[in-house]
Amino acid sequence: MASSKPRIVIVDDHPVMRMGLVQLLTSSGEFEVCGEAGSAEEAIEVLKNENEVDLVIVDMALPDRNGIEFIKDLKTMDRELKCLVVSSHDENVYAERALRAGARGYVMKNQAPRLLIDGVRRVIGGGVFVCENMVAKMMESIAGLGGSSSVSALTDRELEVFRMIGEGKTTREIAGLLNIGIRTVDTHRTHIKDKMGLRDSAEVAYRAIQWAESQS
Predict the structure, then answer these.
(1) Are 211 and 201 spatial neighbours (Cβ–Cβ below 8 Å)?
(2) In the 8-state DSSP scheme, what is residue 10?
């Protein structure tokens, strides 16, 4: 007899993290974990082989794909597929971006396990889940009351370039990884510098390294 429990696929490149999520979800007695993947490519194959998936839990940092772009890929595959991000990346920077990409919720890995279970229930039930602080921040943004931080002002692509600069990657390496031209990378650097009010490329690199370290 087929299980009537909601079926979940977990996508995270850390096996210990996946194991912990599986234990947490199955011990609740409410959910069935029907697949796991350590990369975006593996996740696509898992989803192709699973006929009924109610939720995909996605980490923002995958070895072969940016989390935001991966969520967009999943929504292109199946517009009805629900995604919940569970990540260590700062929700103040990434939560709203993830929701715009098509995710239905965002939970930080350092939050209480009950919040993850609440988030899974909410998203599977058709709702949206973020922490209370993020709800307030988003409402302020909609009302035009909240000032955006300099990093928040970057587009998704600019943020990705900024992250790679912080990881020490060269312009050529960034161009290759993102499949764009070197001049396009330079253009993104210029936009980052202008939006963040920085003086030159050296200051962009310094700020990017500081930011990347804060996200690790």
Answers:
(1) no
(2) E
pLDDT in tens, 139-164: 555 444 444 457 888 999 999 999 89
Which residue, among 63, 120, 123, 118, has the nearest Cα to 99 in the 3D structure? 123
pLDDT at 198: 86
Query: Smallest Cα–Cα separation from 186: which of 156, 209, 67, 194?
Result: 194
Select from 173, 178, 152, 167 the least CA-distant residue to 209: 167
What tokens were used for 169?
Answer: 């990657």
Between 114-118, 180-184, 210-214, the lowest mean confidence (pLDDT) is in: 210-214
**Segment 126-133 long-range contacts (CB within 8 Å, at least 24 positions apart):** 128/99, 128/104, 129/84, 129/104, 129/105, 130/91, 130/95, 130/99, 130/105, 130/106, 131/91, 131/106, 131/107
Instruction: Give the homologous superfamily in CATH for domain 7-143.
Output: Response regulator (3.40.50.2300)
Domain ranges of the chain: 7-143, 156-215
